[in-house]
Write a structure and sequence with these properties.
Elements: E1 7-9, E2 13-14, H1 29-50, H2 65-102, H3 107-111, E3 118-121, H4 124-149, H5 156-185, E4 189-193, E5 198-199, E6 203-209, E7 217-234, E8 241-255, E9 269-274, E10 289-301, E11 306-312, E12 314-315
Parallel strand pairs: 5-12
Antiparallel strand pairs: 1-8, 2-8, 3-4, 4-6, 6-9, 7-8, 7-10, 10-11
Helix pairs in contact: 1-2, 2-4, 4-5
Length: 319
């Protein structure tokens, strides 16, 4: 496999195809627990009302009991998801602290619980997340669709707003189908680090093991990039909006050359990238703005293209 010369991009630019990498919720353990408790308790209370376990005047219900039950499930599930996120955050912190004790002179292990050898990516992980997102959206939108299309209290604006969310659900479902077909076609892939950690100002040597189903490839593009991630708020009052931001700080691209690319799952592709001394290293433990490095692999194949991102342990040299 012949690779092109490296193409460096030093522009700052926003990225749109990224999921959240940082795990911090910005909440204390007690604050997060209490916030989740409010949602769970409210959901349970609504469920008890809808099942008439708590006595209630029937004339106060303006919706079918099944719709009210879904509202209760939405509240309870939201609180449970917040608790789950807090538990994941605590596990990551505990794992990072344990590895930092085992490697007291390593800034990398104090920042993130790395595997010294590399990372394996399963295509079924995003599929499972997609299934969860679709199920939650179905439960979330069902009572609002009842309000928009069945309730006598509906209005045109309600129909328009609910229809826009139904369109989002349809797009999520189509993406889930695409991810599932890709997972069935390709399988697992792996990235290994030939040196750990990768040091700023030196060369990053990596080995990429393609998935077993990657065949009939016309081109593979490898992008090593430095990314900053943070939550950005805009507006005020009722118009205040918070969104997840990913911004590229630096990137280097290498691509395969030739009409057709031969990929064998047991034969890795060796990659080398020369890193300048002016770029920042990883800071994954920061609670507000994290910096991370990733290798993005995009293979143009017959049918569904292969696309994956791998975290890379790039750090400043310690003295």
């Amino acid at each position: 496999m012949i690779l092109s010369d490296s193409v460096v991009d030093e522009r700052r630019c926003r990225l749109s195809n990224h999921e959240r990498v940082g795990t911090s919720t910005g909440l204390s353990r007690l604050g997060g627990f209490l916030l989740g408790l409010v949602f769970v308790a409210t959901g349970i209370f609504i469920l008890l009302l809808s099942r008439e376990i708590i006595p209630v005047d029937p004339s106060s219900f303006h919706a079918p009991h099944g719709v009210v039950t879904l509202f209760g499930i939405i509240f309870a599930t939201s609180g449970a998801l917040l608790w789950s996120r807090l538990i994941q955050e605590r596990r990551l912190v505990r794992s990072r602290l344990d590895q930092a004790k085992q490697h007291p002179f390593s800034a990398a292990f104090a920042d993130y619980p790395w595997d010294l050898h590399g990372t394996t990516k399963s295509p079924w992980t995003p599929v499972s997340k997609g299934v969860g997102a679709v199920i939650f959206m179905v439960i979330f939108l069902t009572p609002f669709n009842w309000w928009a299309w069945i309730s006598v209290d509906s209005a045109l604006m309600v129909k328009i707003i609910v229809s826009s969310f139904d369109l989002i659900l349809l797009l999520l479902l189509l993406e889930l189908i695409r991810q599932t077909l890709g997972a069935l076609k390709y399988g697992k892939s792996r990235l290994e680090y030939m040196a750990f950690p990768v040091i700023i100002g030196k060369r990053a040597d990596l080995r990429w093991f393609p998935p077993s189903g990657l065949k009939n490839v016309s081109k593979i593009t490898f992008v090593l990039r430095c990314v900053e991630e943070w939550m950005e708020s805009s507006g005020s009052g009722d118009n205040r909006r918070t969104q997840l931001i990913h911004e590229q700080r630096w990137a280097m691209t290498r691509s395969t050359e030739g009409i057709e690319v031969a990929c064998l799952p047991n034969y890795p592709v060796t990659l080398s990238f020369d890193l300048p001394p002016t770029v920042p290293g990883s800071k994954l433990a920061d609670e507000h703005k994290i910096t991370f490095w990733e290798l993005e692999v995009n293979a143009e194949a017959v049918g569904i293209d292969f696309w994956e991102q791998y975290l890379v342990p790039v750090y400043m040299e310690t003295t």
